[in-house]
Every structure is written in C-alpha cells, then in structure tokens.
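Possible regression after last week's pipeline update?

I re-ran a chain I had predicted before the update to compare outputs. Posting the input and the new output here so someone can diff against the archived version. Not blocking, just want to make sure nothing changed silently.
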Amino acid sequence: MQRQAQLGPEETVRRPRLKPVASPAMQWNYAVLAYMVAVHATALWSLWAPVRPVWIAVAIGMYFVFGIGTTVGLLRLVCHRAFACPRWLEYVLISMAMPTGQGSPLLWAATHRLHHAYSDTDRDPHSPARSFWYGHIGWFVNALSTRPDDWQTWCRDIGQDPYYLWLLRFRMVPQVVVVTCVALLLGWRAVPFCFYLPAVLWMHATYAVNSLCHLPNLGQAPHATGEHSRNFLPIGLLALGEGWHNHHHAFPRSARHGLGPRQPDVAFAVIKTLQFAGLAWNVRGPGHHVDVVRRQRLVDKTTTP
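New output (post-update):
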C-alpha cells in the first residue's frame, strides 16, 4: 500500500508518466454548472444592453484587477512562492482574485500543484489530453476532477492560514461584496457589463492556459519538460504573462515567465514594481528551479511502501 506525502510549493514535482484516460469519469456538479450558466448568460446579455463610456473603463480595470490577483497573488506568490511580500499585501492580492468565483486559495493552489505534479497524465485535473473542452472548462463542472480535501495534502504550507480557511467556507462572499459595491456606485444595470463580463473573460483567459497552452501543435516548447506545456503568444497577452507556460513548467518557482524580449509579462512587471517600492523581496528568477536530480529525489520521497 502506498501513502502520498504532503507537499509544499518547493516540492512541486513531476511524476512518471501515466496512461492518459480516453474517457474520463464525469459526475456533474450541478451547483457549479448552474453558476457557470448564470454568469455566462449575464455576461453575454451585457453585450447587447446599453453601455455607458465609464462602464468600459471600469470593466477593463476589473479585468486587470482579477488578472493581477490571480497571476501575481494566487499563482506566483501563494502556489510557488516566487517572491515574498508583507502578509497584508498577500491578502490584498488574493482578495483581488477571489471575486471571480475561482474557488478558495486552498483549493486553487491544490489544483495547480496537482497539475504540475501530474501534467498531462490521468491524474492531471485539467489536461486537454482527455479532450480539449474537458481541459478548458469541463473539469471545472466535474465533481470528480478534484477532491474537496486535496488542499490538506498539497497545501500544508498555507493550510492553517485563518483567512484562507475562512475563504474555504465563504468563498463567494468577495464576489457578493464587489457586486454590491459596483451596484451602489454605478447602479445595478452596470453590474453585468462592469463585473460579470470581465470576470467571465478572465475565467476563459486562465482556462486557455490549461487547454490551449497544453496542445502540442500550438506555440513553442523550448524546454523539454516531460509534458505538453507550450508558450503561446495570444494567451501570453490575454493572461498577463501566463501564456509563457512552457517557461513556467521549466522554472515553476520563477517570478518571471516571459523570458524573451518579445514575451511581455505584465504580472512580472507588477512584481518588479512592488520590489522597487520595497513591498516585494526574494524575487526568484528562472535559475531557481527544481533540477532533474532534485526532482527525482522528491518523486522517490512521495511514496512509501
């Protein structure tokens, strides 16, 4: 019998390749499905409703707020500890991401660390090797894609944080607060365009990293990472730097994903700005990664007879 060890961000590793699942088990999470249908319908309706110029500016700002919260806060800070910052700033960054309904930081980080550990195998929560649409959004409405207690194994480093534990229970509160604030400031008619449209667009920008950036016939893969991660310019732009996904898999603890002059990385620019202001330190570069030997040692430690 094998027991899986508990891993933190420094122990995000690659496992031996497993046989891909041709037809994944699917158990609809009807609550999540209903939520996704509702927010997508609201976002689409906003495109046909009258729009004021100020709403456009607010919607663009919301997109960047959601994006920076996700790429800088959830991914590069909480998941990989690619830099350090004051705890209050960490909470601000995480709170910027939470209104999009992407789940609590604990569940988000657990899913992402599982993805790194088992990329494009039958234990990857959202590999397009199963099917493109499953990797893009199907996994999100599949109750069997992840387990509610995965965070207890994969997030031991943040699993006792009181704010993250609170968000585990009340993950939709940030969305309710932001929607209410938009309604009070701009009126309820502004909510679909100013909130739900940018939220849905950001959802699909991040989902495209899971799907499009793991299709072997798109983009480039300069690093041999043992899975199908790719660098793809359109997603690099839309996802504020997350589309340089092959770089990320090669150097998961690097705060910088866009390593070339034609690879813009908005998230890294934000981190460098924080560093200049004295609000970020220990900013890791692409040299700080788990090398092949270290990787194999960690693999060997994750199971015991």
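Follow-up from reviewer: compared with the archived run. Residues 3-18+25-304 form one domain. Marking as no regression found.
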